Amino acid sequence: MTATANPLPRAHVAPRSNRTRGLWLAAMLALLAVLCALSVAVGTRDVGGDDIVAALQGQVETIAQAAVAARIPRTVLAALAGAALGVAGTIMQGVTRNPLADPGILGVNLGASLAVAVAVAFFGIASALAFIWVAIFGAGATAIFVYAIGSLGRGGPTPLKLALAGVATSVAFVSLVLAVMLSHGEVAGGLQSWQVGGVGGATFARMNHVLPFLAVGFAISLACARKLNSLALGDEMAAGLGERVALARGLASLGAILLCGATTAICGPIAFVGLMVPHLCRLLAGVDHRWLLPLSALVGACLLIASDIAGRLIARPGELDVGIVTAFIGAPVFIWIVRRARVRDL
Predict the structure, then answer these.
(1) What is the pLDDT of residues 162-200, one digit of tens each?
(2) Is the pLDDT of residue 10 over 50?
(3) pLDDT (tens digit per residue) in 298-333
(4) Peptide bond just before 317 cis, omega within 30 deg
(5) Are 307 and 116 within 8 A, CB to CB?
(6) Whose CB has fewer CB within 10 Å in the chain, the N or C terminal residue?
(7) Could you report the per-residue pLDDT of 217-252, keeping only the tens digit for each?
(8) CATH architecture group of domain 73-340
(9) CA distance 92 to 271
(10) How big, in percent rounded to 5, are the helix, strand and coil portions of the chain?
(11) 217: exposed, middle or buried (C-beta count within 10 Å: 0-12, 13-18, 19+)?
(12) Interatomic CA distance for residues 124 and 117, integer angstroms
């Protein structure tokens, strides 16, 4: 994948010292620890320190302890999903050199969602492992389709064409998912709640199936950091430096697709995390992907945990799914990014 525009105007990607980047990493780690503690303690029912300690020791004798026991895997899943989507968004923006690239905007998450909906409704899949493989296949096929559509016409795959192709594909896939649900009422309820995107009801048993895919996705993504730095210089410059451009782009995209597909399989489609996180991280740490990818993982985890906490507090005694909260936050950010980008670059 390629495009002609840089992810951000030059003024916003000034170099950062390694010391500054290390401080930002440490700050995000500290923030993540605080948010994890808040996620465990805050919800429909507030709990005290004694109940948290007891729940961590495996006790569920009181309602408060049971609430903590349910929040712990939920917090872990939010951290993993946020980290995966943050890294995937950074890779997509780096591979396409597109400031609007995001698993949601490019339709990758909804491609995974449609694949799962079709597999559940027409083929009756029920195992967690099958969900993951189907979601990864749908994410990969959609990424290829959107890139092919966005490459048509004069100028090749420009950021605006890719974004428009992704948005159009997303709208079409949403309609297809709704058609599947309407024609298969027996699975509509489960698909509808999953389609919103959330981390409620998480268990460690469910997460065990997705962890190997996330681990491979993170490993591939981090291993491609230097390749992404080369691709940022342009295809010709990267090739002149000895980089195998097609291989680098394919490997990085594979890592992003694994992360998107696995996350969508267990959480449902969660939009805008992969759009917001890379832009914020570039402001903090510059454009070196060796620092940008780890920082994106931490910031993505913080964002999704914070969104989950906000969803619980806003709708007490009920809750808003995290996918709804990120959509409320991400839509204005998307508009801001589009307005700040120069029209000729899009």
Answers:
(1) 778 888 998 899 899 889 888 887 777 777 777 888 888
(2) no
(3) 999 999 999 999 998 887 777 888 988 998 888 888
(4) yes
(5) no
(6) C
(7) 999 999 999 999 998 888 788 888 888 888 888 899
(8) Orthogonal Bundle (1.10)
(9) 14
(10) 75, 0, 25
(11) buried
(12) 10
Residue 251: its pLDDT value, please? 93
What does the pLDDT read at residue 15? 58
Under a CB-based contact definition with an 8 Å cutoff, are residues 114 and 177 in contact? yes
Residues 6+ apart with CB under 8 A from 233: 241
Q: How far is CA 259 from CA 19, 66, 224, 230, 233, in A?
A: 29, 31, 14, 22, 25
Task: Answer for the pair 309, 38: CB distance below 8 angstroms, yes or no.
Answer: yes
What stretch of H or E contains 265? helix 245-267
Distance, CA of 298 to CA of 278 (rounded, Å):
11
The amino acid occupying position 50 is D
241 burial level (CB within 10 Å; 0-12, 13-18, 19+):
exposed
Give the E-state strand segments of 267-343 in sequence order. Answer: none
Residues 272 and 326: their CA atoms lie apart, in Å, by: 6
Locate tokens 């966005």: which residue?
Answer: 150
